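Handout, section 3.2

Students often ask what a structure token actually looks like in practice. Rather than define it abstractly, here is a full record for Anti-sigma factor antagonist. The first block is the sequence as you would receive it.
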Amino acid sequence: MVFTFKGQLDAFSEKQFKTFVTNNLKNDLPFVIDLTKIDFLDSSGLGALVQTSKECKKSKLGFSVVGNSRVAQTIKLVRLGDFLNLKSSLEDALNYLKN
């Protein structure tokens, strides 16, 4: 499954993001969070991604994050790339989940 988000992932949208992702964790299917259309990612958004990662690891559910250069740079700046399974393209993320 691929979930594509657009706009901003910040303090104002983080609750909606977490609710959406949590509801879809019940599917027990590996998924990709596609953030290539996100214009802005702040610490609240990063917190939501970290929480998602923790929930997935607890449930042994595969997931990966794909971001545009701005999002990827923000994630790497706080050294969360490996923790969030950050990949450079949707194709890379899907291949990661197949393995």
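Discussion prompt for tutorial groups: Helices lie at 14-25, 43-59, 69-77, 90-98. How would you have guessed this from the sequence alone?
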